[in-house]
Design brief:
With 312 residues, this protein is α/β, with parallel strands linked by helices. It is built from ten helices and 13 strands. The N and C termini lie far apart (67 Å). The structure holds guanosine-5'-diphosphate (GDP) and zinc ion. Zinc ion (ZN) binds next to α9.
């Protein structure tokens, strides 16, 4: 009796096919490429409006795909102002900077805040360590962010420091790199993931009609362990606006002050009395420069909000 029942279940299973767990490694509009735990890959048809993204954990059964809940979502704003998800279940945001071109003031802080707001761990990657003057540039950054975020000084050209970065990523983290054009993101990705060029080529020869291969976001497994989401063209920045409420709570260097608490619960740490941040600026624990950067970004967010409202 029992055996019969089991056979019946097996047959049912056969008819409807097994459930397979996997992760979306690239999105082609009408289909997603799923990498299963077994190592096999399969293109599964999807509808655009379902909003699946690279990094989504899914269960596939009978060519039907179900998305599992997301741990994190990293968002950006596209050129038309719409919010798009860069990737799901990312762990680390690598903020790439270089002495040439230099990051704009506040860039690193905004990236760190955006990462923390999305639940990602920010790390700083200082590239072009081989350039003259790179040491001075790196030391300035290290002086500010040491003990706050992990920092890697590297060179995509000479390979300096790449071992340490690969080891960090190899702990099994899934990462995404941002940085302004020219800092060397592509060079860096190619250096730590030599298969990257090849993959882009593969997608191209696969002939994705109406789908610009240079904008296909892909999840790559790194040779040294870990994974990396590459979204060519989107890494410049445009991460979704941070809010004035969240800015201080995630601002690098304000961590201790935030534990102290200000007199007012909704303190924005500008001119309010009994402010834990102002107190630390007065005592020198937070440098005037850091505080000014905070105020600048705060004003930029306010201006951005106004601009956004105006557009609507
Ligand atoms: P991306 O715009 O951030 O993707 O930057 P690219 O990878 O295209 O690099 C921009 C320029 O910087 C190229 O000319 C690279 O050869 C150069 N570059 C990238 N990494 C390094 C580096 O570590 N050292 C030096 N000296 N040049 C680099
Ligand atoms: Zn305050």
């Amino acid at each position: 009796m029992k055996i019969k029942q089991k056979r019946g279940e097996e047959q049912k299973e056969k008819k409807s096919g097994p459930e397979k767990k996997g992760v979306i490694v690239s999105h082609h509009g009408i289909a997603v490429d799923v990498l299963f735990e077994s190592g096999e890959r399969q293109l599964v048809k999807v509808k655009r409006r379902e909003g699946h993204v690279v990094g989504d954990n899914v269960v596939v059964k009978d060519h039907r795909l179900t998305r599992l809940p997301r741990k994190t979502e990293l968002c950006r704003r596209d050129s038309r102002g719409s919010v798009r998800i860069v990737g799901a279940n990312l762990d680390v945001l690598g903020v790439v900077v270089s002495p040439m071109p230099m990051p704009t003031p506040g860039y690193i802080d905004q990236a760190i805040v955006a990462a923390r707001q999305a639940g990602l761990t920010p790390v700083l990657v200082i590239n072009k360590g081989d350039l003259e003057g790179a040491r001075i540039f790196a030391d300035e950054i290290i002086a500010i962010y040491k003990g706050i975020v992990d920092i890697f000084v590297v060179s995509a050209i000479t390979g300096e420091g790449l071992d340490a970065l690969e080891k960090y990523l190899g702990q099994g983290v899934r990462s995404f790199f941002v940085g302004i054009t020219g800092v060397g993101k592509s060079s860096l990705l190619n250096a730590i993931c030599p298969a990257l060029d090849l993959r882009v080529g593969e997608l191209f020869t696969a002939g994705n009609r109406g789908c610009n291969t240079t904008t296909v976001s892909t999840l790559h497994s790194l040779p040294g362990g870990g994974e990396l989401v590459d979204t060519p063209g989107f890494n410049e920045f445009g991460l979704v606006d941070i809010s004035t409420e969240d800015l201080a709570g995630f601002f690098p260097g304000f961590e201790a002050a935030m534990e102290d608490r200000c007199r007012f619960r909704d303190c924005r740490h500008r001119t309010e009395p009994g402010c834990a941040v102002s107190k630390r600026v007065e005592s020198g624990e937070i440098s005037q420069e850091r505080y000014d950067t905070y105020l600048d970004i705060f004003d930029q967010i306010l201006a951005g909000d106004a601009r956004f409202k105006f557009r609507r």
